[in-house]
Amino acid sequence: MQWNITEKHTYPVHVRVICRDKRAAAELSTAISSHDVNISHATVETIPGEQAICEFDLEVTDLKHFNAVVTALKRLKAVQAVERVRVSDSKPEKKPDKKQDRKGLH
Description:
The chain is of the alpha+beta class. It contains three helices and four strands. The chain has helices at 25-33, 63-74, 98-103, and strands at 11-19, 38-47, 51-60, 79-85. Strands 2-3-1-4 form a four-stranded antiparallel β-sheet, covered by helices on one side. The radius of gyration is 20 Å and the shape is globular.
């Protein structure tokens, strides 16, 4: 049996890009794909003043790869801001019992 240790794994990351120009989506997509990053999902929401909020689900190989994409996006004239969006656990937090609040666990 042989192991294919050269195979690269990808990790999902969600990115939000605030643009000065609502027509910038194609330029963003080109910048992302030029770094061999797959875009698994994208949305564009236009906001007043010709601006747009673009969100992308990307597949990157590591932090260095992700940082290179972010740097490329930030260099675009139409880009105002780039941020990683961390998806929190959607389960509601369990509220502690009142007895636990006052005196710790019983």
